[in-house]
Amino acid sequence: MKTDTKGLSIIFHSGSYDRVFHGFSIVLVALALGRDVKCFFTYWSLQYLVKGKSVFQLNEEGESHRKLLEDHMKKGHIQEISELFIQAKAMGAKFYVCTNSMGLLNISRDELVNEVDKSMGLTTFLAETVHDQIIFI
Prior knowledge:
Blueprint: E1 8-12, H1 17-32, E2 37-41, H2 60-63, H3 66-74, H4 81-90, E3 94-98, H5 99-104, E4 118-120, H6 122-128, E5 133-136
Parallel strand pairs: 1-2, 1-5, 2-3, 3-4
Helix pairs in contact: 1-4
């Protein structure tokens, strides 16, 4: 299958597990199709990149489906975000974190997983991804 090789950049903003999970689904499919993928984590999504932290937070919409999601996780039908992160990194995804959000949430670079490529502001991220398709989650 011939696909467009235009880069894909995803801005992760939400901290809701279901949204971050589906964002990673898009990341992994785009990588499998040969696209370059850059991910920018800001605000509430940053918690998924903190070393040793296991997060399963849901927003109001997701909360109404908590039992369903938890049951599927127990059965192994839904992976942990940390597992998806490792898969995406191995396939070539680049991961960036928002310096302003880090400051707001009092998260230092040392607290983040080693696979984060670099921290930057939104202006720099958008300048570096000017030719990419951008998705906001």
